[in-house]
Amino acid sequence: MLGLMQDWPLLCHRIIDHAATYHGARPVVTRSVEGPIVTTDYAKIRARALRVAKRLEKDGIKLGDRVATMCWNTWRHLECWYGILGIGAIYHTVNPRLFADQQTWIINHAEDRVMIADLTFVPLLEKIADKLTTIERYIILCDAAHMPQTTLKNAVPYEEWLAEVDGDFAWKSFDENTAAGMCYTSGTTGEPKGVVYSHRSNVIHAFMAALPDSKGLHATDVVLPVVPFFHANGWSLAFSSPMVGAALVLPGAKMDGPSIYELLDKYKVAFTAAVPTVWLMLLQDLEKTGGKLPYLKRVVIGGSACPRAMTQTFQDKYGVEVIHAWGMTEMSPLGSLCTMKPEYAALTGEARLDVQMKQGHPPFGVEMKITDDVGKPLPWDGKTFGRLKVKGPAVAKSYFKGSGGNILDDEGFFDTGDVATIDEYGYMQVTDRAKDVIKSGGEWISSIDLENLAVGHPKVAEAAVIGVSHPKWDERPLLVIVLKKGEQASKEDILGFMQGKIAKWWMPDDVAFVDEIPHTATGKIQKMALREKFKSYVLPTVEAAE
Predict the structure, then answer these.
(1) Confidence class of residue 175 from pLDDT cuts 50, 70 and 90?
(2) Across the strands, what pairs with 525?
(3) Which residues fall within 8 angstroms of residue 544, CB to CB, at 6 or more apart?
(4) Active-site residue (options: 444, 491, 524, 533)
(5) Residue 543, pLDDT score
(6) Catalytic one among 69, 104, 185, 431?
(7) Is 330 among the residues known to form the active site?
Protein backbone atom coordinates (compact mmCIF):
# COMPACT_ATOMS: atom_id res chain seq x y z
CA MET A 1 0.00 0.00 0.00
CA LEU A 2 1.34 3.44 -0.96
CA GLY A 3 0.66 6.78 0.67
CA LEU A 4 -1.93 9.08 -0.82
CA MET A 5 0.15 12.24 -0.86
CA GLN A 6 0.68 14.54 -3.82
CA ASP A 7 3.62 14.09 -6.15
CA TRP A 8 5.60 17.30 -5.56
CA PRO A 9 9.18 16.89 -6.82
CA LEU A 10 11.91 18.47 -4.71
CA LEU A 11 13.23 20.92 -7.30
CA CYS A 12 15.61 23.74 -6.38
CA HIS A 13 13.66 26.48 -8.17
CA ARG A 14 10.72 25.81 -5.85
CA ILE A 15 12.90 27.43 -3.16
CA ILE A 16 13.09 30.77 -4.97
CA ASP A 17 9.37 30.48 -5.80
CA HIS A 18 8.63 30.13 -2.08
CA ALA A 19 10.94 33.02 -1.18
CA ALA A 20 9.38 35.29 -3.80
CA THR A 21 5.81 34.41 -2.78
CA TYR A 22 6.09 34.48 1.01
CA HIS A 23 9.20 36.61 1.61
CA GLY A 24 9.22 38.63 -1.62
CA ALA A 25 10.26 41.97 -0.13
CA ARG A 26 13.09 40.52 1.96
CA PRO A 27 16.25 42.37 0.89
CA VAL A 28 19.22 40.90 -0.94
CA VAL A 29 22.09 43.38 -0.58
CA THR A 30 25.36 43.10 -2.53
CA ARG A 31 28.62 44.98 -2.57
CA SER A 32 28.92 44.84 -6.34
CA VAL A 33 32.15 44.02 -8.13
CA GLU A 34 31.93 47.45 -9.76
CA GLY A 35 31.84 49.06 -6.30
CA PRO A 36 28.40 50.42 -5.35
CA ILE A 37 25.99 48.63 -2.99
CA VAL A 38 23.05 47.12 -4.90
CA THR A 39 19.81 46.23 -3.10
CA THR A 40 17.18 43.94 -4.56
CA ASP A 41 14.77 41.36 -3.07
CA TYR A 42 13.63 37.77 -3.52
CA ALA A 43 10.70 38.68 -5.78
CA LYS A 44 13.03 40.54 -8.17
CA ILE A 45 15.67 37.76 -7.96
CA ARG A 46 13.03 35.25 -9.09
CA ALA A 47 11.74 37.51 -11.88
CA ARG A 48 15.26 37.94 -13.30
CA ALA A 49 16.08 34.25 -12.81
CA LEU A 50 13.11 33.44 -15.09
CA ARG A 51 14.66 35.72 -17.71
CA VAL A 52 18.04 33.98 -17.28
CA ALA A 53 16.29 30.66 -17.89
CA LYS A 54 14.53 31.95 -20.99
CA ARG A 55 17.72 33.53 -22.34
CA LEU A 56 19.77 30.37 -21.78
CA GLU A 57 17.12 28.37 -23.62
CA LYS A 58 17.32 30.88 -26.50
CA ASP A 59 21.08 30.12 -26.62
CA GLY A 60 20.27 26.43 -26.99
CA ILE A 61 21.06 25.38 -23.42
CA LYS A 62 18.91 22.43 -22.45
CA LEU A 63 18.35 19.74 -19.83
CA GLY A 64 21.66 18.30 -18.62
CA ASP A 65 23.91 20.96 -20.20
CA ARG A 66 26.61 22.38 -17.96
CA VAL A 67 26.85 26.13 -17.42
CA ALA A 68 30.02 27.27 -15.65
CA THR A 69 30.11 30.19 -13.24
CA MET A 70 33.30 31.90 -12.12
CA CYS A 71 31.76 34.50 -9.85
CA TRP A 72 31.78 36.09 -6.42
CA ASN A 73 28.75 36.02 -4.13
CA THR A 74 26.44 38.62 -5.73
CA TRP A 75 22.76 39.04 -6.56
CA ARG A 76 23.54 38.34 -10.23
CA HIS A 77 25.25 35.05 -9.38
CA LEU A 78 22.17 34.05 -7.38
CA GLU A 79 19.88 34.91 -10.33
CA CYS A 80 22.04 32.82 -12.63
CA TRP A 81 22.00 29.81 -10.30
CA TYR A 82 18.23 29.70 -10.13
CA GLY A 83 17.88 30.44 -13.85
CA ILE A 84 20.22 27.58 -14.75
CA LEU A 85 18.40 25.23 -12.35
CA GLY A 86 14.98 26.21 -13.70
CA ILE A 87 15.58 24.67 -17.14
CA GLY A 88 17.23 21.51 -15.85
CA ALA A 89 20.72 22.68 -16.80
CA ILE A 90 23.56 22.24 -14.31
CA TYR A 91 25.43 25.06 -12.59
CA HIS A 92 29.15 24.29 -12.37
CA THR A 93 30.94 26.56 -9.92
CA VAL A 94 34.59 26.95 -10.95
CA ASN A 95 36.97 28.04 -8.21
CA PRO A 96 38.92 31.07 -9.51
CA ARG A 97 41.66 30.42 -6.95
CA LEU A 98 42.74 27.15 -8.55
CA PHE A 99 45.80 27.02 -10.78
CA ALA A 100 45.10 27.76 -14.45
CA ASP A 101 45.91 24.17 -15.49
CA GLN A 102 43.39 22.85 -12.94
CA GLN A 103 40.71 25.27 -14.13
CA THR A 104 41.30 24.25 -17.75
CA TRP A 105 41.13 20.56 -16.89
CA ILE A 106 37.96 20.95 -14.82
CA ILE A 107 36.06 23.04 -17.40
CA ASN A 108 36.96 20.66 -20.23
CA HIS A 109 36.19 17.56 -18.14
CA ALA A 110 32.77 18.98 -17.22
CA GLU A 111 32.18 19.92 -20.90
CA ASP A 112 30.75 23.30 -19.93
CA ARG A 113 28.98 25.05 -22.83
CA VAL A 114 28.70 28.57 -21.38
CA MET A 115 30.90 30.50 -18.95
CA ILE A 116 29.29 33.15 -16.75
CA ALA A 117 31.99 35.26 -15.11
CA ASP A 118 32.55 38.36 -13.03
CA LEU A 119 34.65 41.25 -14.35
CA THR A 120 37.48 40.26 -12.00
CA PHE A 121 38.08 37.03 -13.87
CA VAL A 122 38.07 38.22 -17.49
CA PRO A 123 41.91 38.48 -17.64
CA LEU A 124 42.23 35.04 -16.04
CA LEU A 125 39.85 33.48 -18.58
CA GLU A 126 41.55 35.21 -21.52
CA LYS A 127 44.76 33.36 -20.64
CA ILE A 128 43.14 29.91 -20.82
CA ALA A 129 40.30 30.49 -23.31
CA ASP A 130 42.14 28.94 -26.27
CA LYS A 131 42.38 25.65 -24.30
CA LEU A 132 38.69 25.55 -23.32
CA THR A 133 37.36 23.29 -26.06
CA THR A 134 33.64 23.21 -25.16
CA ILE A 135 32.86 26.82 -24.16
CA GLU A 136 30.67 28.49 -26.80
CA ARG A 137 30.24 31.91 -25.24
CA TYR A 138 31.12 34.10 -22.26
CA ILE A 139 28.57 36.13 -20.29
CA ILE A 140 30.20 38.84 -18.20
CA LEU A 141 28.23 39.92 -15.12
CA CYS A 142 28.05 43.66 -15.82
CA ASP A 143 26.21 46.18 -17.97
CA ALA A 144 27.39 47.63 -21.29
CA ALA A 145 29.04 50.62 -19.60
CA HIS A 146 31.37 48.34 -17.60
CA MET A 147 31.99 45.76 -20.31
CA PRO A 148 35.75 45.50 -20.95
CA GLN A 149 37.43 45.04 -24.30
CA THR A 150 38.04 41.31 -24.45
CA THR A 151 39.20 38.54 -26.75
CA LEU A 152 36.76 36.06 -25.19
CA LYS A 153 34.57 34.25 -27.72
CA ASN A 154 31.05 35.67 -28.21
CA ALA A 155 31.43 37.68 -24.99
CA VAL A 156 28.41 39.75 -23.99
CA PRO A 157 27.52 41.93 -20.97
CA TYR A 158 24.97 40.16 -18.78
CA GLU A 159 22.48 43.03 -18.60
CA GLU A 160 22.37 43.41 -22.40
CA TRP A 161 22.11 39.62 -22.86
CA LEU A 162 19.25 39.49 -20.35
CA ALA A 163 17.44 42.46 -21.94
CA GLU A 164 16.83 40.41 -25.11
CA VAL A 165 14.05 38.43 -23.39
CA ASP A 166 11.12 39.17 -21.09
CA GLY A 167 10.22 37.20 -17.97
CA ASP A 168 7.25 35.38 -19.49
CA PHE A 169 8.56 31.90 -18.83
CA ALA A 170 7.59 28.81 -16.84
CA TRP A 171 10.12 26.61 -15.11
CA LYS A 172 10.67 23.24 -16.74
CA SER A 173 9.44 20.06 -15.08
CA PHE A 174 11.67 17.04 -14.60
CA ASP A 175 12.54 14.31 -12.11
CA GLU A 176 13.86 15.49 -8.73
CA ASN A 177 16.91 13.23 -9.16
CA THR A 178 17.99 15.32 -12.18
CA ALA A 179 21.49 16.75 -11.83
CA ALA A 180 21.44 20.31 -10.47
CA GLY A 181 25.01 21.37 -9.78
CA MET A 182 28.64 20.35 -10.04
CA CYS A 183 31.66 21.12 -7.92
CA TYR A 184 35.10 19.59 -8.26
CA THR A 185 37.20 18.48 -5.32
CA SER A 186 40.32 20.58 -4.86
CA GLY A 187 42.50 17.71 -6.05
CA THR A 188 45.33 17.67 -3.50
CA THR A 189 46.23 14.22 -4.88
CA GLY A 190 45.63 13.33 -8.53
CA GLU A 191 43.19 15.12 -10.82
CA PRO A 192 40.16 16.90 -9.28
CA LYS A 193 36.98 14.81 -9.22
CA GLY A 194 33.52 16.07 -10.16
CA VAL A 195 30.75 15.83 -7.56
CA VAL A 196 27.27 16.05 -9.09
CA TYR A 197 24.41 17.24 -6.86
CA SER A 198 20.77 16.49 -7.67
CA HIS A 199 17.79 18.77 -7.14
CA ARG A 200 16.55 16.33 -4.50
CA SER A 201 19.89 16.25 -2.64
CA ASN A 202 20.22 20.06 -2.68
CA VAL A 203 16.70 20.60 -1.30
CA ILE A 204 17.07 17.94 1.41
CA HIS A 205 20.48 19.37 2.32
CA ALA A 206 18.98 22.87 2.58
CA PHE A 207 16.39 21.52 5.06
CA MET A 208 19.21 19.88 7.03
CA ALA A 209 21.28 23.07 7.03
CA ALA A 210 18.44 25.29 8.30
CA LEU A 211 17.43 23.06 11.24
CA PRO A 212 17.55 24.63 14.74
CA ASP A 213 20.47 22.43 15.81
CA SER A 214 22.29 23.09 12.54
CA LYS A 215 22.48 26.74 11.50
CA GLY A 216 19.15 27.64 13.11
CA LEU A 217 18.11 30.05 10.35
CA HIS A 218 15.01 32.23 10.71
CA ALA A 219 13.09 34.67 8.52
CA THR A 220 14.11 37.38 11.01
CA ASP A 221 17.84 36.74 10.38
CA VAL A 222 20.15 38.76 8.17
CA VAL A 223 22.65 36.28 6.70
CA LEU A 224 26.12 37.09 5.31
CA PRO A 225 27.58 34.16 3.31
CA VAL A 226 31.28 35.04 3.32
CA VAL A 227 32.04 31.49 2.20
CA PRO A 228 31.98 31.71 -1.63
CA PHE A 229 29.29 29.89 -3.60
CA PHE A 230 32.14 28.09 -5.39
CA HIS A 231 33.04 26.36 -2.09
CA ALA A 232 30.62 23.40 -2.21
CA ASN A 233 27.32 25.24 -2.72
CA GLY A 234 28.36 28.07 -0.40
CA TRP A 235 27.53 25.70 2.47
CA SER A 236 23.89 25.75 1.26
CA LEU A 237 23.29 29.39 2.17
CA ALA A 238 22.08 30.18 -1.38
CA PHE A 239 19.35 27.59 -0.78
CA SER A 240 18.65 27.55 2.96
CA SER A 241 18.44 31.36 3.35
CA PRO A 242 15.68 31.90 0.75
CA MET A 243 14.02 28.67 1.96
CA VAL A 244 13.36 30.29 5.37
CA GLY A 245 13.08 33.85 4.05
CA ALA A 246 16.23 35.23 5.70
CA ALA A 247 17.61 38.46 4.25
CA LEU A 248 20.95 38.11 2.44
CA VAL A 249 24.01 40.35 2.43
CA LEU A 250 26.51 39.31 -0.24
CA PRO A 251 30.13 40.51 -0.01
CA GLY A 252 31.13 40.46 -3.69
CA ALA A 253 34.89 40.49 -4.21
CA LYS A 254 35.94 42.27 -0.99
CA MET A 255 36.46 39.81 1.86
CA ASP A 256 39.16 41.55 3.90
CA GLY A 257 38.57 42.28 7.60
CA PRO A 258 37.45 45.93 7.32
CA SER A 259 35.10 45.21 4.38
CA ILE A 260 33.43 42.30 6.17
CA TYR A 261 33.10 44.33 9.37
CA GLU A 262 31.43 47.17 7.45
CA LEU A 263 28.73 44.81 6.15
CA LEU A 264 28.25 43.08 9.52
CA ASP A 265 27.73 46.41 11.25
CA LYS A 266 25.84 48.41 8.63
CA TYR A 267 23.28 45.71 7.79
CA LYS A 268 22.95 44.25 11.32
CA VAL A 269 23.99 40.77 10.23
CA ALA A 270 22.90 38.05 12.69
CA PHE A 271 24.46 35.00 11.03
CA THR A 272 27.59 34.48 8.95
CA ALA A 273 29.85 31.65 7.82
CA ALA A 274 33.41 31.27 6.50
CA VAL A 275 36.75 29.52 6.92
CA PRO A 276 39.05 30.41 9.87
CA THR A 277 41.44 32.57 7.80
CA VAL A 278 38.63 35.06 7.09
CA TRP A 279 37.75 35.35 10.77
CA LEU A 280 41.40 35.79 11.67
CA MET A 281 41.44 38.89 9.43
CA LEU A 282 38.23 40.20 10.99
CA LEU A 283 39.42 39.68 14.57
CA GLN A 284 42.75 41.37 13.80
CA ASP A 285 40.86 44.36 12.38
CA LEU A 286 38.57 44.54 15.43
CA GLU A 287 41.60 44.42 17.72
CA LYS A 288 43.17 47.30 15.82
CA THR A 289 40.07 49.50 15.56
CA GLY A 290 38.26 48.60 18.78
CA GLY A 291 35.16 47.68 16.76
CA LYS A 292 32.26 45.71 18.32
CA LEU A 293 29.80 43.12 16.99
CA PRO A 294 26.50 44.12 18.62
CA TYR A 295 24.22 42.45 16.06
CA LEU A 296 26.05 39.24 15.22
CA LYS A 297 24.61 36.22 17.04
CA ARG A 298 26.10 33.14 15.35
CA VAL A 299 29.12 32.39 13.21
CA VAL A 300 29.71 29.03 11.53
CA ILE A 301 33.39 28.20 11.13
CA GLY A 302 34.46 25.28 8.94
CA GLY A 303 36.70 24.31 6.03
CA SER A 304 39.51 23.57 8.46
CA ALA A 305 39.67 23.17 12.24
CA CYS A 306 38.71 26.29 14.20
CA PRO A 307 41.43 27.32 16.69
CA ARG A 308 40.34 27.31 20.34
CA ALA A 309 41.58 30.89 20.79
CA MET A 310 39.32 32.06 17.93
CA THR A 311 36.24 30.46 19.46
CA GLN A 312 37.11 31.93 22.85
CA THR A 313 37.65 35.46 21.45
CA PHE A 314 34.36 35.48 19.51
CA GLN A 315 32.38 34.27 22.51
CA ASP A 316 34.08 35.92 25.50
CA LYS A 317 35.03 39.25 23.96
CA TYR A 318 32.24 39.81 21.41
CA GLY A 319 29.35 37.63 22.68
CA VAL A 320 29.04 35.71 19.39
CA GLU A 321 28.20 32.01 19.48
CA VAL A 322 30.64 29.91 17.43
CA ILE A 323 29.33 26.82 15.65
CA HIS A 324 32.19 24.58 14.60
CA ALA A 325 31.22 22.70 11.43
CA TRP A 326 32.64 19.95 9.26
CA GLY A 327 31.81 18.67 5.81
CA MET A 328 33.08 17.88 2.34
CA THR A 329 32.35 18.74 -1.27
CA GLU A 330 31.08 15.15 -1.53
CA MET A 331 28.53 15.86 1.24
CA SER A 332 26.94 18.97 -0.31
CA PRO A 333 28.86 19.86 2.09
CA LEU A 334 27.48 19.73 5.66
CA GLY A 335 28.32 16.66 7.74
CA SER A 336 28.17 17.90 11.33
CA LEU A 337 27.74 21.04 13.42
CA CYS A 338 28.75 21.56 17.03
CA THR A 339 25.56 22.81 18.64
CA MET A 340 24.81 21.83 22.22
CA LYS A 341 22.75 18.79 23.16
CA PRO A 342 21.26 18.65 26.69
CA GLU A 343 24.17 16.48 27.86
CA TYR A 344 26.59 19.38 27.27
CA ALA A 345 24.33 22.44 27.38
CA ALA A 346 25.09 23.35 31.00
CA LEU A 347 28.87 23.35 30.52
CA THR A 348 30.75 26.62 30.86
CA GLY A 349 34.30 27.90 30.52
CA GLU A 350 37.06 25.51 29.50
CA ALA A 351 34.80 22.45 29.68
CA ARG A 352 32.42 23.98 27.15
CA LEU A 353 35.33 24.97 24.91
CA ASP A 354 36.59 21.37 25.04
CA VAL A 355 33.30 20.26 23.46
CA GLN A 356 33.29 23.14 20.97
CA MET A 357 36.63 21.97 19.58
CA LYS A 358 34.77 18.92 18.28
CA GLN A 359 33.18 19.15 14.82
CA GLY A 360 29.85 18.20 16.38
CA HIS A 361 26.98 15.86 15.68
CA PRO A 362 25.35 15.16 12.31
CA PRO A 363 21.88 16.45 11.44
CA PHE A 364 19.19 14.00 10.34
CA GLY A 365 20.26 12.86 6.87
CA VAL A 366 23.88 12.01 7.74
CA GLU A 367 24.93 8.63 9.14
CA MET A 368 28.46 8.19 10.52
CA LYS A 369 30.75 5.40 11.62
CA ILE A 370 34.45 5.02 12.41
CA THR A 371 36.36 1.89 11.42
CA ASP A 372 39.88 0.52 11.49
CA ASP A 373 41.89 0.05 8.29
CA VAL A 374 40.12 -3.22 7.45
CA GLY A 375 36.62 -1.82 7.97
CA LYS A 376 35.90 -3.11 11.49
CA PRO A 377 33.65 -0.70 13.46
CA LEU A 378 35.34 1.07 16.38
CA PRO A 379 33.82 2.20 19.71
CA TRP A 380 32.25 5.62 20.27
CA ASP A 381 34.26 6.52 23.37
CA GLY A 382 35.66 9.89 22.30
CA LYS A 383 39.19 8.46 22.38
CA THR A 384 39.50 5.75 19.75
CA PHE A 385 40.68 7.10 16.38
CA GLY A 386 39.25 5.56 13.22
CA ARG A 387 38.50 6.20 9.57
CA LEU A 388 35.42 8.40 9.34
CA LYS A 389 32.76 7.10 6.94
CA VAL A 390 29.40 8.63 6.04
CA LYS A 391 26.21 7.99 4.08
CA GLY A 392 23.02 9.92 3.36
CA PRO A 393 20.76 11.47 0.69
CA ALA A 394 23.20 14.36 0.08
CA VAL A 395 26.39 12.24 0.03
CA ALA A 396 28.05 11.32 -3.29
CA LYS A 397 27.83 7.69 -4.45
CA SER A 398 30.30 8.15 -7.33
CA TYR A 399 32.21 10.86 -9.20
CA PHE A 400 31.44 12.36 -12.62
CA LYS A 401 32.43 10.07 -15.49
CA GLY A 402 33.34 7.36 -12.98
CA SER A 403 36.56 9.00 -11.77
CA GLY A 404 38.02 7.20 -8.78
CA GLY A 405 36.03 4.00 -9.37
CA ASN A 406 33.81 2.57 -6.63
CA ILE A 407 33.96 4.94 -3.65
CA LEU A 408 31.54 3.16 -1.26
CA ASP A 409 32.11 0.27 1.13
CA ASP A 410 29.91 -2.82 1.33
CA GLU A 411 27.38 -0.98 3.51
CA GLY A 412 27.21 2.03 1.17
CA PHE A 413 29.39 4.31 3.32
CA PHE A 414 31.79 6.84 1.79
CA ASP A 415 35.29 7.00 3.28
CA THR A 416 35.89 10.70 3.97
CA GLY A 417 39.67 10.34 4.23
CA ASP A 418 39.49 11.87 7.72
CA VAL A 419 40.53 10.20 10.95
CA ALA A 420 38.14 10.95 13.81
CA THR A 421 36.76 10.02 17.19
CA ILE A 422 33.05 9.89 18.10
CA ASP A 423 31.97 10.23 21.71
CA GLU A 424 29.05 8.56 23.52
CA TYR A 425 26.70 11.42 22.59
CA GLY A 426 27.53 11.25 18.88
CA TYR A 427 29.92 14.23 18.79
CA MET A 428 32.58 13.68 16.13
CA GLN A 429 36.06 15.19 16.28
CA VAL A 430 38.40 15.10 13.30
CA THR A 431 41.89 14.32 14.52
CA ASP A 432 43.54 14.37 11.10
CA ARG A 433 43.38 13.59 7.44
CA ALA A 434 44.26 9.90 7.05
CA LYS A 435 47.29 10.90 5.01
CA ASP A 436 48.39 13.55 7.56
CA VAL A 437 48.11 11.65 10.83
CA ILE A 438 51.51 11.20 12.51
CA LYS A 439 52.29 7.60 13.37
CA SER A 440 54.83 7.57 16.18
CA GLY A 441 55.87 4.20 17.63
CA GLY A 442 52.68 2.59 16.37
CA GLU A 443 50.46 5.25 18.01
CA TRP A 444 48.64 8.10 16.26
CA ILE A 445 49.24 11.78 17.02
CA SER A 446 46.73 14.37 15.84
CA SER A 447 48.41 17.18 13.92
CA ILE A 448 45.18 19.22 14.17
CA ASP A 449 45.20 19.17 17.98
CA LEU A 450 48.82 20.34 18.03
CA GLU A 451 48.11 23.10 15.49
CA ASN A 452 45.11 24.39 17.43
CA LEU A 453 47.12 24.48 20.64
CA ALA A 454 50.07 26.31 19.04
CA VAL A 455 47.80 28.95 17.47
CA GLY A 456 46.61 29.80 20.98
CA HIS A 457 50.04 31.33 21.67
CA PRO A 458 49.59 35.14 21.56
CA LYS A 459 52.52 35.61 19.14
CA VAL A 460 51.53 32.88 16.66
CA ALA A 461 49.60 33.76 13.49
CA GLU A 462 49.45 30.28 11.96
CA ALA A 463 50.74 26.78 12.71
CA ALA A 464 51.09 23.50 10.84
CA VAL A 465 52.34 20.13 12.05
CA ILE A 466 53.83 17.39 9.87
CA GLY A 467 55.44 14.05 10.57
CA VAL A 468 59.20 13.90 9.99
CA SER A 469 61.12 10.65 9.66
CA HIS A 470 62.66 9.30 12.87
CA PRO A 471 64.87 6.19 13.19
CA LYS A 472 63.31 4.96 16.45
CA TRP A 473 59.70 6.16 16.32
CA ASP A 474 59.10 6.05 12.53
CA GLU A 475 57.72 9.63 12.62
CA ARG A 476 57.80 12.52 15.07
CA PRO A 477 55.96 15.85 14.89
CA LEU A 478 57.63 18.99 13.54
CA LEU A 479 55.80 22.22 14.37
CA VAL A 480 55.95 24.87 11.61
CA ILE A 481 55.14 28.39 12.84
CA VAL A 482 54.32 31.76 11.24
CA LEU A 483 54.60 34.53 13.83
CA LYS A 484 52.34 37.56 13.90
CA LYS A 485 53.79 40.61 12.17
CA GLY A 486 56.45 42.29 14.29
CA GLU A 487 56.51 39.53 16.92
CA GLN A 488 59.48 37.44 18.03
CA ALA A 489 59.46 34.07 19.81
CA SER A 490 61.83 31.17 20.34
CA LYS A 491 61.35 27.42 20.10
CA GLU A 492 61.44 27.31 23.92
CA ASP A 493 58.68 29.96 24.15
CA ILE A 494 56.35 27.93 21.92
CA LEU A 495 57.03 24.52 23.45
CA GLY A 496 56.85 25.99 26.95
CA PHE A 497 53.37 27.32 26.15
CA MET A 498 52.28 23.84 25.01
CA GLN A 499 53.85 22.00 27.95
CA GLY A 500 51.35 20.22 30.19
CA LYS A 501 48.42 20.78 27.80
CA ILE A 502 48.97 17.59 25.80
CA ALA A 503 50.42 14.15 26.41
CA LYS A 504 54.18 14.38 26.85
CA TRP A 505 54.88 12.02 23.95
CA TRP A 506 52.77 14.23 21.64
CA MET A 507 55.11 17.22 22.14
CA PRO A 508 56.75 18.31 18.85
CA ASP A 509 60.42 17.36 18.59
CA ASP A 510 61.27 20.71 17.02
CA VAL A 511 59.87 24.06 15.87
CA ALA A 512 60.60 25.62 12.47
CA PHE A 513 59.80 29.32 11.93
CA VAL A 514 58.75 30.32 8.38
CA ASP A 515 57.44 33.47 6.69
CA GLU A 516 54.39 31.72 5.26
CA ILE A 517 52.67 28.35 5.12
CA PRO A 518 51.43 27.15 1.69
CA HIS A 519 47.67 26.82 1.20
CA THR A 520 45.39 25.15 -1.34
CA ALA A 521 42.94 27.20 -3.41
CA THR A 522 40.27 26.49 -0.77
CA GLY A 523 42.42 27.84 2.07
CA LYS A 524 43.56 24.52 3.53
CA ILE A 525 47.17 23.99 4.58
CA GLN A 526 49.15 22.14 1.91
CA LYS A 527 50.71 19.44 4.06
CA MET A 528 52.12 17.74 0.97
CA ALA A 529 54.10 20.87 0.05
CA LEU A 530 55.36 21.19 3.63
CA ARG A 531 56.43 17.55 3.72
CA GLU A 532 58.34 18.08 0.49
CA LYS A 533 60.01 21.22 1.86
CA PHE A 534 61.10 19.47 5.08
CA LYS A 535 61.74 15.99 3.65
CA SER A 536 65.47 16.17 4.51
CA TYR A 537 64.91 17.85 7.88
CA VAL A 538 66.87 16.23 10.71
CA LEU A 539 65.15 16.45 14.09
CA PRO A 540 67.35 17.25 17.12
CA THR A 541 66.15 13.99 18.73
CA VAL A 542 67.54 11.84 15.92
CA GLU A 543 71.14 11.95 17.10
CA ALA A 544 70.16 10.77 20.59
CA ALA A 545 68.08 7.94 19.12
CA GLU A 546 70.99 6.77 17.01
Answers:
(1) very high
(2) 519
(3) none
(4) 444
(5) 65
(6) 185
(7) yes
Chain centre to alpha carbon of residue 119: 23
In terms of Cα–Cα distance, which of 33, 29, 254, 27 is closest to 143? 33
Q: Are 419 and 437 a contacting pair, CB within 8 Å?
A: yes
Q: How confident is the model at residue 45 (pLDDT cuts 50, 70, 90)?
A: very high
Q: Active-site residue 105, yes or no?
A: no
Question: How distant is the alpha carbon of residue 440 from its chain centre?
Answer: 31
Interior angle at CA 295, CA 292 and CA 301, nearest 5: 85
Active site residue 439: yes
- Tens-place pLDDT, residues 279-322: 989 999 999 999 999 999 999 999 878 889 999 999 999 999 99
Interatomic CA distance for residues 63 and 28, integer angstroms? 28
Helix axes 237-244, 199-210, angle to 10 degrees: 70
Q: Which domains does the chain have, with CATH numbers?
A: 19-254 (3.40.50.12780), 362-433 (2.30.38.10), 438-545 (3.30.300.30)
Q: Are 450 and 438 in contact (CB under 8 A)?
A: no
Given 79, 330, 462, 475, the catalytic residue: 330
- Taking a C-beta distance cutoff of 8 angstroms, is the pair 119, 140 a contact? yes
Gap between the Cα atoms of 360 and 410, Å rounded:
26
Q: Which of 266, 439, 472, 501 is catalytic?
A: 439
**Residue 431 bears catalytic tag:** no
What CA–CA distance (Å, rounded) separates 485 from 463? 14
Tell whether omega for the bond before 192 is within 30 degrees of 0, i.e. cis: no
342-354: burial string, b at 16+ Cβ within 10 Å, e else: eebeeeeeeeebe
Separation CA 7–CA 58 (nearest Å): 30
Alpha-carbon distances of 176 from 5, 197, 207, 340, rounded to whole Å: 16, 11, 15, 33
335 touches 361 (CB < 8 A): no
